[in-house]
Write a structure and sequence with these properties.
261 residues, alpha+beta, six-stranded antiparallel beta sheet, six-stranded antiparallel β-barrel, 19 strands, globular
């Protein structure tokens, strides 16, 4: 099928490109490593710690990245049982995800337990010398600032009541949504919802398209349902609007990173 320039009636289904795996990279320069660790810290992305020869998994967060001194600090582990392995000097692996990118490293050096009245319990040690960086999507996924989340509405023939929520991040192929409450029973993985609307800020026009539900998770501790959707049969005009919005978010993120360093 030929596509004419400026033809806004042409319909695209970009779903096949979204999950095409990219080869993993090993980051070795201190600036690259610090930049990616800083991204995990600022987004408060959860990290999983696993110790060699132990099946139990522990959760933590990066709470400080000191590029100048090549050190970092991890938040208190949940459950706290893992702290005894850390204090015994057992090597461990850390893994997290940021905007669909897997970021992982191994820690073989000792970390110091710091107990502060102001900041609570944490573990400080050297930044890793190597970080595995694995981007699993072709499309750049841009996160929105918490102070500028976009209102969204999800509706369709298979959904009894429309859902109103917030847009958390977006790429040219899909986006991540947040809804208050438990909607894990109402929503169905693989289902096409014909009417998805995102009220993008000016000068971008309102985004309206069909979406396919690809990921669904209800976080009981927060009382929030997270949903990952993929655009379905998105029109050329709407796709251009999305790409322009993503590009603007990407520019803002890069400018923010430059200010940090």
């Amino acid at each position: 099928m030929s596509i004419l320039p400026g033809d806004t009636s042409t319909v695209f289904n970009v779903s096949n490109a979204e999950d095409a795996p990219q080869p993993p990279k090993v980051l070795t320069t201190p600036l690259e490593i610090a930049s990616n660790l800083r991204a995990l810290e600022k987004s408060h992305d959860p990290l999983t710690i696993t110790f060699a020869d132990r099946a139990q998994r522990f959760q933590t967060f990066l709470v400080d990245v000191d590029h100048k001194n090549s050190t970092m600090a991890l938040d208190e582990m949940i459950p706290r049982d893992g702290e005894k392995y850390l204090q015994a000097g057992e090597p461990f692996r850390v893994e997290g995800f940021h905007d669909g990118i897997r970021i992982a490293w191994e820690c073989h050096s000792m970390m110091t337990v710091v107990d502060s009245a102001d900041n609570g319990r944490s573990y400080r040690g050297d930044m890793p010398r190597e970080v595995l960086y694995h981007q699993r999507r072709n499309a750049f996924r841009a996160a929105l600032k918490l102070t500028a989340l976009v209102d969204v509405e999800l509706a369709g023939d298979k959904l009894k009541n429309s859902l109103r929520g917030k847009l958390l991040d977006i790429s040219a192929t899909g986006c991540k949504l947040r809804f208050d409450g438990d909607h894990s029973e109402a929503l169905q993985l693989g289902q096409i919802y014909e009417r998805y609307t995102a009220h993008l800020p000016t000068p971008y026009t309102r985004l309206t398209t069909a979406v396919e539900l690809r990921h669904l998770h209800y976080e009981e501790s927060l009382g929030i349902t997270f949903a990952g959707v993929r655009f379905h049969n998105i029109s050329a005009a709407t796709l251009r609007n999305v790409e322009n919005f993503v590009f603007q978010l990407q520019r803002e993120a890069r400018r923010f990173d430059k200010d940090d360093f």
